[in-house]
């Protein structure tokens, strides 16, 4: 088995190096060649290529002519109008078997129609070589996604759920694009609240060393109780403040109590991650604490830190209030930790792209310490230069009443309960469809889980992340419309068509040919081919909803194809089964990138 594993990994590497350009990239390359011939003196002109909105005009279009005309009209009088530039661009297109024909439209758009034969061949190749050959190429080797990041002893709320879901998808898309991703859980495990927690632990649980984890059933209640004690009792408050000093000074007993409290929280978080199938590596705030002093000295040496009202602060352009990095009492805060963490990630971990996923409410914090890092010369200016930092903000989760989502009026939602409910509802729906008799118990459980958790994730991801979204079980579990349930069922139906054909797909891949002769086959084929550029776009702009939209449209294109083209028993059966399989493969990769487990029968 060892040998097999080795051979396997070598072939995976070999595939890696065969990464292909996306269709859009290939078209851009062709237009790039043409532009070099058309305007030889314009060295910095880049081809602007977009997919055509109306497929009657073509599949892709080049939009350079208009702006180029304005640029060159004085030096190149042979171009009398933008359309003439477009004409020249078209004439200079190198011959290519990927293009069927081209034309000029309006003021100078150059439309190209892809060769259906070329398209079909490319899809067939993907079926043989694997969807990995359609992975996007990104200009980075290593990225950090800082996501989820709940706070120890406080509740992990729906905001953290959003961060977990969005961050995981971004990490998956980057990983698929062959970027090495460090998935970081920046948990709030440091700070003054630990003084009161530790002191309360000593006071209420004299046996804490042996049995704290069994005795503290509900850590959030523990937090609330200790907070009440802190607010009400001056003596306790003083002891709690001394406890912080002892903890930060590294006193054994305090460190131990701290790590026990963290451990209880960690186990609770882990239950949510396991259900969601999310993997994270914890490097909490405490990890960076030893680096803060040195990093602040570094910033001081560049004269960035000044004194203000007893605190030490950094002023950045455009914001009146400065970024506090040392509090009046000499303690460090969220910002000092984030500066130290950024220094560590750039210099020790050598990350080229660092992505932070939190609610939009924290935008100013991120903008400010990013600016500080730029002032210090850690980051180059400009959006397309690396190393780069990005804040991925998201909106609120609302309840049906339009207010922040809560189960009962005062309590925050317990995430595990939420996921349980999604699963329970899915299971009930499946039982209603007779699946309890048809399937094994395990199949029923696994499907209910896949659909239920998938629905929660998809409902979150399908919206532009900056908008608030309403959490509604009935909507997200609807089997019609843009929901995970609908999409998972659509995929299962494709699988069942292939199964019921009785044909061996592996064999068809070897001996069959794929063709895209019917207009609805061609539309579906074009959509499949755009997978790579869509993932690229979703990744580059950090917008998972772009991938959701692609997936939903894919299933619509498939439905149209399936309605208008007979598959099983037709003269085109082989080709159409291959097209069904290609659709299923791309859908599955979309599900995978969205963190959704596909189901194969329904
Ligand atoms: N713990 C923070 C919160 O719950 C999120 C941390 C985000 N990451 C970071 N590097 N600041 O709001």
Question: Rg to the nearest angstrom?
Answer: 28 Å
Kindly report how far apart the N and C termini lie.
Answer: 35 Å
Q: What's the number of extended β-strand segments? A: 14
Bound compounds, please?
arginine
Overall structural class, as computed from helix and strand content, comes to alpha/beta
Strand order of the largest sheet: 7-6-5-11-12
Question: Would you summarize the structure shown here?
Answer:
This protein has helices spanning 2-17, 23-38, 65-72, 82-91, 116-129, 158-176, 193-204, 208-215, 219-232, 234-248, 252-276, 285-301, 334-347, 363-375, 415-432, 435-438, 441-461, 473-476, 484-501, 505-511, 519-529, 531-540, 544-564, 573-593, and strands at 49-51, 60-62, 99-105, 109-114, 142-146, 180-185, 281-282, 305-308, 311-314, 323-326, 353-359, 388-394, 397-398, 469-470. By secondary structure, the chain is an alpha/beta fold.
């Amino acid at each position: 088995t060892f040998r097999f594993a080795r051979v396997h990994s070598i072939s995976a590497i070999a595939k890696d190096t065969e990464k292909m350009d996306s269709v859009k990239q290939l078209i851009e390359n062709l237009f790039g060649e043409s532009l070099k011939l058309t305007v030889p003196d314009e060295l910095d002109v880049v081809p602007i290529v977009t997919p055509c909105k109306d497929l009657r005009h073509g599949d892709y279009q080049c939009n350079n002519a208009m702006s180029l005309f304005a640029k060159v009209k004085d030096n190149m009088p042979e171009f009398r109008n933008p359309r003439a530039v477009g004409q020249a661009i078209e004439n200079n297109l190198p011959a290519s078997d990927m293009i069927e024909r081209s034309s000029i439209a309006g003021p100078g758009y150059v439309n190209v129609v892809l060769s259906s034969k070329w398209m079909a061949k490319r899809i067939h190749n993907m079926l043989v070589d694997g969807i990995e050959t359609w992975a996007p190429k990104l200009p980075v080797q290593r990225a950090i996604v800082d996501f989820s990041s709940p706070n120890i002893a406080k509740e992990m709320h729906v905001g953290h759920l959003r961060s977990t879901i969005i961050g995981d998808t971004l990490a998956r898309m980057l990983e698929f694009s062959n970027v090495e991703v460090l998935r970081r859980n920046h948990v709030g495990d440091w700070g003054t609240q630990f003084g009161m927690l530790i002191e309360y632990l000593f006071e209420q649980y004299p046996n804490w060393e042996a049995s704290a984890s069994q005795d503290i059933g509900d850590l959030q209640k523990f937090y609330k109780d200790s907070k009440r004690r802190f607010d009400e009792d001056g003596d306790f408050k003083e002891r709690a403040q001394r406890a912080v000093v002892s903890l930060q000074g590294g006193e054994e007993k305090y460190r131990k109590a701290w790590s026990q409290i963290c451990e209880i929280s960690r186990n609770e978080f882990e239950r949510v991650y396991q259900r969601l199938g999310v993997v994270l590596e914890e490097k909490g705030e405490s990890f960076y604490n030893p680096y803060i002093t040195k990093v602040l000295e570094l910033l001081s040496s560049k004269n960035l830190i000044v004194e203000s009202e007893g605190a030490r602060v950094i002023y950045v352009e455009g914001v009146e209030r400065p970024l506090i990095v040392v509090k009046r009492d000499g303690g460090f805060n969220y910002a000092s930790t984030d500066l130290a963490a950024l220094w560590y990630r750039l210099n020790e971990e050598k990350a080229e792209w660092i992505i932070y996923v939190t609610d939009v409410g924290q935008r100013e914090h991120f903008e400010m310490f990013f600016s500080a890092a730029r002032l210090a010369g850690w980051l180059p200016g400009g959006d397309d230069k690396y190393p780069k930092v990005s804040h991925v903000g998201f909106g609120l989760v609302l309840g049906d009443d339009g207010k922040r989502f809560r189960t009962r009026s005062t309590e925050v939602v317990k995430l595990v309960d939420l996921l349980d409910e999604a699963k329970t509802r899915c299971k009930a729906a499946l039982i209603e469809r007779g699946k309890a008799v048809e399937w094994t118990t395990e199949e029923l459980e696994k499907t209910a889980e896949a659909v239920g958790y998938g629905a929660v994730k998809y409902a979150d991801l399908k919206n532009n992340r900056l908008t608030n979204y309403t959490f509604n079980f009935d909507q997200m579990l609807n089997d019609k419309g843009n929901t995970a349930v609908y999409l998972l069922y659509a995929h299962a139906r494709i699988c069942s068509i292939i199964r019921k054909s009785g044909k061996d797909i592996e064999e068809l891949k070897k001996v069959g040919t794929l063709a895209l002769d019917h207009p609805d086959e061609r539309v579906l084929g074009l959509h499949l081919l755009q997978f790579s550029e869509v993932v690229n776009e979703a990744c580059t702009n950090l917008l998972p909803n772009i991938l959701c939209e692609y997936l939903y449209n894919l299933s619509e294109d498939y439905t149209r194809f399936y309605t208008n083209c007979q598959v099983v028993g037709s003269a085109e059966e082989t080709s159409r089964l291959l097209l069904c399989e290609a659709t299923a493969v791309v859908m599955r990769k979309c599900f995978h990138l969205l963190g959704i487990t596909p189901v194969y029968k329904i």
